[in-house]
Every structure is written in structure tokens, then in C-alpha cells.
Amino acid sequence: MTKALKYCARSLGVTLRDWDILGAITLFFAEAFSAGAIALGLVYLVLLNFNLNFWGKFMVGLILGALLMALYLLAALLKARVILRYPAMNLPAAQRLSKVEVLRHALAAPWLPRHAPLPDPLQTEKPAASERWQKGAHLVLPTLVARDLPLEAAELEVESRMAGNPPAFNPARVAVAPLTLTLLALLGVAGLLLALGFISWFTTGLVTPLPLQIRAAALGLLAFMVLFTPAVAFSAVMNGYYQADLFLRASGGGLDGTEILSKVIKQDAYDGTK
């Protein structure tokens, strides 16, 4: 976890010096809060027509679920934009992002790698950790972005590369994903509790007037978005940098071909010799 913290600290330094990535982050916040405003408008319509009966609560739950899905997809786009504009990738400034393919990858990602062989039901021993990460699911998105490929072509390229030259660097060595996932969980729960607190405060009593219901929904949603959205952006940016570094290392550039990862590993090795 220490290396992950060092990686994130160096990544923040890179971010603050890069106007393209800062612009991508600004765009993410604009898109995220626009989605929040649309969700609030839909909640208003539900409360106006159904109040807080069973169907009203059910529809509000569906709207909030759709908002979370929208944030997930927007985070995937932010991660891809970070990979595209990461200086070490050295991609042409004119290269554009295929948003459709990035979103397809985001929807398929929970089931990647899809080309991995099925486990042998007669095998009693657990597969080695290297067998899981060497399938290269973490390389599909940067391959898709860097090569400007459709999702299927990017998966096939990664599969071919893994078969001929599997990576020697375990992504878990720098635990960026667990660190950002922990932050997401903590701020997500905190935002949810704060939102529920606002809603409970404004809706006490047997009958709550519609204006108070709307105010409670607005403040609750705003509290959740203010806490959770920065965590989503932070996670997307950090994982975007890390996946780009892993792609560069797996592409033959070695550790020295990366911008952030090489400094973290070298610093860790230096600290270990002192």
C-alpha cells in the first residue's frame, strides 16, 4: 500500500502540470453533475406524481441506480482520456478517443478476460496468482486507446501478446486499484449516510409537504455527489495512469519506458537499501 500511495502522490504532480488531463477532469465533473441534475429532475417528477408510496420509492431507487451507472461510465471515459493524454504514451495530439468502444469495454470489463480457458473441474489446487493477472485484462483498455482499435481487436491483440510474451510485472505489486477502491467505498458510504441524514431531517412527521420532499432530495443528492464524485474522479485518473504504465512496460519499453511507475519502483528500491 505504501508504493500505491507514492504512485498516487507522483500522479497528482503529473496531473497538476498537464492542462489536457486537467481539462478531462473538469469535463468529467461537468458531465457528472449534469447527470445528477437530470436525476434530481426525474426524482421531482416521481415525487410530484407518486409521492413516497411504494412505487414512488421504487422509481427513485431505479433513478439512483441509473445515476451510479452513469458515474461508472463517465469514470471509464475519464480513465481513457487520461491514458490518451498521458505524456509517456507519446500519442499524437490529433488522435481522438472512440467513446463507443470505451463504453463497450466498461460494460464488458467485469467479465474480462473473456478468452481465458475455463478452469479444470478436476484441478484441486488453486491457480497461481500469476495465472490470473497474466491474462492481461488490465491491458485491454490502454491497447484499445493507444492503437485506436475496436474492443474485439484490442482483446485479440492482448491475448496474442500474452500467449507469446506474458508480462513479468504483477500489477498487484503497486496496489493502486485496492487503494482507490477503498477510498471509493469510504466516501460512498459517507455520502450515502449524509444524504440519508438530510432526508430524515426534512421528512420527519407523518405527512411531509412536497416542497420539503424536493428540498430533502436535492440536499441529499448534492451531499452524496460532493463526497462521492471526487473519489470517482481520483480513482479513474490514478488507474488510468497505472494501466498506461503497465501497457508501456508490457509493450517492450521496460520499466524505464514508464513515467511514474519507474520512479516509484526505483525510489522503493533506494529506500530499501538505506
List keywords for this structure.
single chain, 274 residues, elongated, 0% strand, mainly alpha, disordered C terminus
Secondary structure blueprint with pairings:
Layout: H1 2-16, H2 19-50, H3 54-85, H4 99-108, H5 129-133, H6 140-147, H7 151-164, H8 176-202, H9 210-253, H10 261-273
Helix pairs in contact: 1-9, 1-10, 2-3, 2-9, 3-4, 3-9, 6-7, 8-9
What would you note in describing this structure?
The chain has 274 residues and is mostly helical. The chain has one domain (2-97, 172-273). 73% of the residues lie in helices and 0% in strands. The chain contains ten helices and no strands. The chain has helices at 2-16, 19-50, 54-85, 99-108, 129-133, 140-147, 151-164, 176-202, 210-253, 261-273. Helix 1 (2-16) packs across helix 10, helix 2 runs antiparallel to helix 9 (210-253) and helix 8 (176-202) runs antiparallel to helix 9. The radius of gyration is 22 Å and the shape is elongated. The relative contact order is 0.15.
Structural class: mainly alpha
Q: What low-confidence regions span 5 or more consecutive residues with pLDDT below 50?
A: 113-132, 270-274
Summarize the biggest pleated sheet.
none
Q: What's the domain count? A: 1
Give me the Rg, rounded.
22 Å
The total strand number stands at: 0
Task: Output mean pLDDT.
Answer: 79
Q: Give the overall form.
A: elongated
Number of helices: 10
